[in-house]
Design brief:
Blueprint (H helix, E strand, L loop, with lengths): L11 H20 L8 H8 L3 H4 L1 H14 L2 H8 L1 H21 L3 H15 L2 H12 L5 H29 L4 H4 L1 H15 L13 H20 L9 H23 L13 H31 L4 H7 L1 H20 L2 H19 L8 H25 L9 H39 L12 H7 L4 H31 L2 H4 L7 H12 L1
Helix pairs in contact: 1-8, 1-9, 1-11, 4-7, 4-12, 4-19, 5-6, 5-19, 6-7, 6-11, 8-9, 8-19, 9-16, 9-18, 12-13, 14-18, 14-19, 14-21, 16-18, 17-18, 17-21, 19-21, 20-21
Length: 514
């Protein structure tokens, strides 16, 4: 594994420049997870694709990123972290440009797959470099700065993508990466000092292929399960079998092979495993809630796309405000307490959202979403410190890659689970409400409701169906928010398996002596 860069041998200005370059890489990768979503209708017409076909623009990127995240640690050790990081950033920038000039759907899907392959390494490598740039007592602040890209990217992605598409065209969603990518590459080449590599390492093809098959099949199953009616479709059954077999072969191989590309000893650290599970839940909540709120506001609240983007801003503000203080708080407060407060804040916000109606006041909406964003930051930032506290330095890149993988899988499962629950809840609640809609219901026979909602006339049938559908969606969204609430609660027991960083223990002792 790449040797850590000694923070004492690098000047403050050089450290800030390296940090800026890694932040650019992190933000570029995080933005591209969601920035293309709002441009899909425009891309569909321009590339001559159907509604189902255009989703492969998103799926191909996610699948590639999931597959190539796990072996990041091996590539960094074998070829050196600096060369591998620069190569990945160059590849991501070039493929972004190719995505912008693609003339057909197959070209766009192929370039997006390559973009995901190169982009998979950007977040874990930038995190590992940031951890090595700063000593333990300063890592809370460093991780707060680094987390800005990871957290704000998915939040700002749809808003930025919509603005670029409206102001220019959908191709600028990808072109915007090019100047920032060139600047980051130049900065890393000039200011990142790291030469260590292990040229004798051999690649574990068996483990990589098994894990790739498992991740690829799992992502396809999650992405296509809803449209294919899940396990009633032979395709979904086959993908589930391949995913299970791939993961089984990978685990067996990792435990029995002499030199697997993911060292099994990393999973012996209970603190890391607890952080791994927590990161999975963060991925579920972060992207799952991000995918739920915009359509809720647009379809039920009748807000425009621009208004919806503005209403999502308080969530980002809450996350940003906490990022500025959480890093400093980890120096003097047990990170587990901060994470516990964050979990309670997220759970409280989700519980309040289960009781929302489209008439919810803007003040309440803003405060609750701001609380949710703050809670996610209170969990995410201390986790970047405490999750690595008991790991040796040579395992940090592997650990960062696995954390990114866990967050990506959690995000995929979160989006899939909320979409499936939303669809099934709408059908169930609609059927339950429709049972009460009969010609013998006296509430629908008199007054204005009898005129406009009476099932005895075609006009009334249409009106009452719209009314029932509206309330079915209202209850379905409440069920999804409740699912996010229950996802938060198991995180509290996991905190007891994490350990405070040793450097922070010393810092607390020094403060107590003063």
């Amino acid at each position: 594994m790449s040797a850590p860069t000694a923070s004492g041998k690098i000047g403050t200005r050089q450290r800030l420049l390296v940090m800026g370059c890694t932040m650019i890489a992190t933000l570029m990768q995080a933005l591209d997870n969601t920035i293309a979503n709002v441009a899909l209708p425009h891309m569909q017409g321009s590339l001559g694709a159907s509604r189902d076909q255009i989703t492969w623009v998103l799926t191909s990127y996610v699948i590639a990123a999931a597959i190539f995240t796990a072996p990041v640690g091996w590539f960094a050790a074998r070829f050196g972290r600096k060369p591998f990081f620069i190569l990945s950033l160059i590849g991501f920038t070039v493929t972004s440009m190719l995505c912008g000039i693609a003339q057909s759907l197959p070209q766009e899907v192929a370039f997006r797959f390559l973009q995901g392959c190169f982009g998979a390494a950007l977040v874990p490598l930038s995190q590992a470099i940031m951890l090595d740039l700063y000593p333990m007592e300063s890592r809370g602040t460093a991780m707060a700065i680094w987390a800005t890209g990871v957290m704000i990217g998915p939040i700002l992605g749809p808003t930025l993508g919509g603005w670029l598409t409206d102001a220019y065209n959908w191709r600028w969603v990808f072109f915007i990466n090019v100047p920032f990518g060139i600047a980051a590459v130049a900065g890393l080449m000039l200011f990142l000092n790291e030469r260590h590599r292990q040229a004798t390492l051999r690649f574990d093809w068996m483990g990589f292929l098994a894990l790739s098959a498992g991740l690829g099949a799992l992502q396809l199953m999650l992405d296509r399960g809803y449209s294919k009616d899940w396990f009633s479709s032979p395709e979904i059954v086959i993908e589930a079998v391949i995913a299970g077999l791939g993961f089984y072969l990978f685990i067996v191989h990792m435990l029995t092979a002499e030199k697997p590309f993911i060292p099994p000893r990393i999973f012996r650290d209970v603190g890391f495993l607890s952080g791994f599970a927590t990161m999975f839940a963060v991925g579920v909540i972060l992207l799952g809630s991000s995918a739920l709120l915009p359509p809720y506001l647009q379809s039920l609240g009748n807000y425009s796309v621009t208004q919806t983007g503005l209403l999502m801003t308080p969530r980002g503000i809450g996350a940003m405000v906490v990022m500025m203080v959480a890093g400093r708080l980890t120096r003097v407060i047990d990170p587990r307490l901060l994470m516990g407060f964050g979990v309670v804040a997220i759970a409280g916000a989700m519980w309040d959202m289960t009781r929302w109606t489209p008439e919810v006041s803007l003040m309440r909406l803003s405060l609750v979403t701001m609380l949710q964003g703050a809670g996610i930051s209170f969990v995410f930032i201390p986790l970047q410190v405490i999750g690595f506290a008991t790991l040796p330095a040579q395992l940090r890149t592997d650990a960062a890659a696995l954390y990114s993988l866990s967050r990506n899988i959690g995000s995929a499962i979160g989006v899939s689970a909320t979409s499936t629950l939303l669809a099934s809840s709408v059908q169930t609640i609609h059927a339950q409400l429709a049972e009460q809609i009969t010609p013998f219901n006296r509430a629908l026979q008199t007054g204005a409701q009898g005129l406009f909602l009476g099932p005895a006339t075609p006009f009334g049938i249409q009106g009452v169906d719209q009314y029932v559908q509206y309330h079915a969606y209202l209850g379905a969204y409440a069920n999804d928010f409740l699912l996010m609430f229950w996802t938060c609660l198991p995180l509290l027991p996991l905190l007891f398996f994490m350990r405070k960083p040793a450097a922070q223990n010393a810092k607390l002792a020094d403060l107590a002596m003063e």
